[in-house]
Amino acid sequence: MLMPRAASICLVGGCPKRTIRAGRCVDHAPHERAWSRTSARNRNRDTARRLWDRQVRPRALVRDGFACVRCGVREGLEVDHVLPIAQGGTWTLDNAQTLCQGCHQEKTARERRQR
User: Fold this and answer.
1) How many angstroms separate the Cα of 61 from the Cα of each of 15, 74, 94?
2) Is residue 37 in a domain?
3) What is the Cα Rg of the chain in Å?
4) What is the pTM of this model?
5) Is 59 a domain residue?
6) pLDDT in tens, 47-58
7) Terminus-to-terminus CA distance in the chain, angstroms?
8) Residue 96's domain spans which residues?
9) How far apart are CA 77 and CA 67, in angstroms?
10) What span, in angstroms and rounded, lies between the C-alpha atoms of 98 and 80?
């Protein structure tokens, strides 16, 4: 036979009300999370990614003449990091280059072999 759980009182000092969530009563319960599940590192990455998509990527395409910087193809273009972020690259225009899908795949494969 299971015994009912004893009611607990609010964690806020001097409040005698019963808890509803996170150890607090209706009056003191947090309405939204006090902390975020997203780490500061990931928040910064997400902000940089939005900046890359909205500002850096279009500028790199214009700067490179809407063509692959390696072979000159004008279709299936991708903007790539010259030095990958994982290896210390930045999210700036200086570290961006326009590549076609084939050249991008070759570059990525070469970088993976070097690790």
Assistant:
1) 61, 10, 13
2) no
3) 26
4) 0.62
5) yes
6) 888 888 999 999
7) 60
8) 55-114
9) 7
10) 6
